[in-house]
Design a protein that fits this description.
Number of helices: 16
Radius of gyration: 26 Å
Structural class: alpha/beta
Strand order of the largest sheet: 7-8-10-11-12-13-14-15
Largest sheet: 8 strands, mixed, barrel
Shape: elongated
Strand content: 15-25%
Helix content: 40-55%
Number of strands: 16
Length: 460
Amino acid sequence: MAQAEVATINGERTRESDRLAALSATGILDSEPEASFDAITRLCADYFKADTVFLGFADESRLWIKSAWGEPVRELPRRGSIFELVLAANGPVIVPDILEDPRFRDNGLALRRLEARSFAAVPIRCCEGQVLGELVIINSHPRRSMARDELRMLENLAELASNQVELRYLRQNGRPRDSRPPSQPQHAVPIWPQPADLRAALERHEFELFYQPEVELATHQIVGLEALIRWRHPERGLVPPMDFIPAAEESGLILPIGDWGLAEVCSQIRQWTREDHSHSALRVCVNLSARQFSRDGLADHVEALLSRYGIASRQLGLEMTESSLMSDTRAAFDVLNDLRRLGVSLLMDDFGTGYSSLNYLHSFPFDVLKIDRSFVTRMTEGQQALQIVKTIIELARALGMDVVAEGVETREQHALLRDLGCRYGQGFLFSRPISADATTELLRLPGRIMPDHMLVSQLT
C-alpha cells in the first residue's frame, strides 16, 4: 500500500477517533428523551411538510435516534446510512429523487423500510466542529431541489440541536447545578437583607421602578418599556435587584413586592396615556417571578388591575423565564392561556439559555422572544453566538413571534441585528434604566424617536 494511502487511512482513523471522543464527552447516547429535540423535529415536519423527520447521533456502528416525527424510528445501521454521506461531505446532503441518483441504484442505502424517495440531511456538530449526528427530513415522493432559504432554515434548526448538545456537555462537565458555596465561618456577618428589612422597605415605600426602552432598530422609535425594580435604601443608596430579589424569593416576600410592582406599572401606564393618548400604543412589561407565576388566581389578579386602572390589556406585557414554567408545565400552560385570553402580551425572557426552551417555545402561547444579552454581547466575537441569534430570529419568524434583542450596547451589534432581521432591541446603546420622571421626558421626544446624538451619549 502506498505511503499516501496509509497516511490518508491514518488521518481518517484519527478524525473518527476524535469525533467519537467528542460524542462520548456529551453523554448524549445515554441520555433520556429530550423535549427540545422533539420540538425541533416537530418544527421541521411543520415547516417542510415532511413525511418523516428524525434527529440522531452516530457511534461506530449505529445511528441512535433521539427524536423522530412521522414513522417511528429507533435506530439504524450506520453502514450505508445518510449519516455516512453527511460525514463524508462534512455538510448538507440533498437528494431530490433517490431513484434518479446513480449512488442509490443498488438500493444499498439504509432507508428501505422508511419508503424514502427524497431526503435532505444536515450535520449536528459539537462546538469544535466534529459531526456528531444529523437532522434528516424524508419524503415518500420526489421533491424539487431545496431552495437556499429552506436549506438555511434546516441548518439553523440543526444548529439549535447542536446548542442543546453543548448545553448538555457544559452541565455534565461543569460545576454541579446543586453545588453550594462553603459554609460560613461561625462569626460571619449576617446575610443582608433579612425578611424584616424587606418588610420595612415595603412599609416605607422604598421600592421604585425604573424603565428601559424597547426600540425599533430601523427607526429608533420607542415602542415599549421594561419595568425594573430598584430599592432606594436610606443608608445603602440605590440597591440593584440582584442584591435583594433572591432573598425576597426565598422568604416569600416576592409576592407582595410583585403585587406592588404590577399595580405601580398599571398606574404609570394610566398616567402616561392620560398625558398623551398616543402612548396607549406602548407596551410596558413586568418580570414575573416563579412564585408569582405559580400562585393561584394570577390571571384574575391581572384582570382586576386592568379594570381598576382602566388600561387596555395590550398595554401590559408579562415576562417570564423558563424556570417559571418548569415545576408544573400543565398548570403553566393553563395560566398562560388564561393570560392570553385577557389580551396581555406574553414574553419569554432570556431565550436561548434554558435547557428546554425549545419545548416551551413550541408548546406555550408566547408572543415575543427576548434574546439573552449573553448571545448579543458575543455576536461580534465569533460565529457561534451570531448563528444562535440568527437561528432564534428565523425560528421566531416562522412561528409568527416578535423578537427583542437584549443588551444592545454598540453600533456594531445594532447593525448586525438589523441585518439579521431583528426588529426590536433594548440596551445601553439606547438608554440605561431610568426613573419614571426621566422616562416621561424621553417619551416626549417627537414621535418617541431617539435622535442619533442620544445613542452616542449612552456610551460615554
